[in-house]
Amino acid sequence: MSQSKERDYVLGTHDEELERLGVQHRAWRPVVLECWANAGIKTGSRVLDVGAGPGYATVDLAEIVGPTGNVVAVERSTNFVNAIKRATLSNVEAHELDLMNNDLPAGPFDFVWCRWVLCFVSDPELLVKKIAAVTHHGGRAIFHEYGHYATWKFFPPRASLEQFRTHVIAAWRQAGGDPDTGLQLPGWLAKNGFVVRSAIPRIFCLQPSDYMWQWPSQFIQIHLLRLLELGRIDATFADRVRDDLAAAEKEQTSFMLTPLVLEIVAEKVYSQDSPR
Predict the structure, then answer these.
(1) Angle CA(68)–CA(64)–CA(100) in degrees, nearest 5?
(2) CA 34 – CA 49 distance, rounded (Å)
(3) Are strands 255-257 and 109-115 parallel, antiparallel or unpaired?
């Protein structure tokens, strides 16, 4: 499918973005596996992967739930859905749909996994309502959502990288998203029959030698191209950001604070129309 026909994201759905998402998944994989284990995902579980992207988490979930379990991945990008289907896993179903305009696949699901999706959709509260409708009573919805994106900082400070973050947030909001959606999530969950069982802030202080450094570093490299494509920055600014990032990565005294992510696990304890 051509890029003009592909249902695009603010971050793009091209091959370079698919590769960047792989780096991101590997960087976060130890944290995510621990999260899923603590939430109770196990052999035989039925899991809905909301906004599955190219399916990196889907594949991990499929391995955990095994042949007696089932993972249903939903994603609006044709490119990403095709990537999931190429994995040819017998316990995985992939559905191409728009989270705002289409219903989710029929539940009930034991678990729902939703990572960095609410912050991009136009009506995140509606998506929480849809998730509630397909979650089993006693089932759990698991979220990773940004709670304070502006914590992303380099130190010593580098002005162009600060400006880059500002451009990212502006483009994000212009596309209808909200980078700090996680702060509102507990309230939406309560309205839809969930009780929050855990809420953990995930923030890291990194140096260039840390593997997780590659997560934001690659994001910068890829998203500079996206901001150029959108006309939000010029080539001179992009080169300055690249130079400052390269300089930061060579200095032993460089550190980076990552954007704060909220890890929220909520249990479905009421039906949506039950009195509290």
Answers:
(1) 90
(2) 17
(3) unpaired
Cα gap 229→234, rounded to integer Å: 9
Q: Which long-range contacts (CB under 8 A, 24 or more apart) does 156-165 make?
A: 156/253, 156/254, 158/244, 158/245, 158/247, 158/248, 159/244, 160/237, 160/240, 160/241, 160/243, 160/244, 161/220, 161/241, 161/244, 161/245, 161/248, 163/237, 163/241, 164/220, 164/224, 164/241
| pLDDT range class, residue 6, cuts 50, 70, 90 | very low
DSSP state of 210: S
- And the tokens for 74? 């939903």
Q: How far apart, in whole angstroms, are the C-alpha atoms of residue 249 and residue 255?
A: 9
Question: What residues pair up with 148 in beta bridges, in sequence order?
Answer: 260
pLDDT digits (tens, 9 = 90+) for 220-229: 998 999 899 9
Q: pTM for this one? A: 0.91
Structure tokens at 175: 């596309």
pLDDT per residue over 186-215, tens digit each?
999 999 999 999 999 999 999 999 999 999
35 or 107: whose pLDDT is higher? 35
Report the DSSP pairing between strands 70-75 and 92-96.
parallel
Length of the chain equals 276
Q: What distance in Å separates the CA atoms of residue 228 and residue 235, rounded to the nearest whole number? A: 7
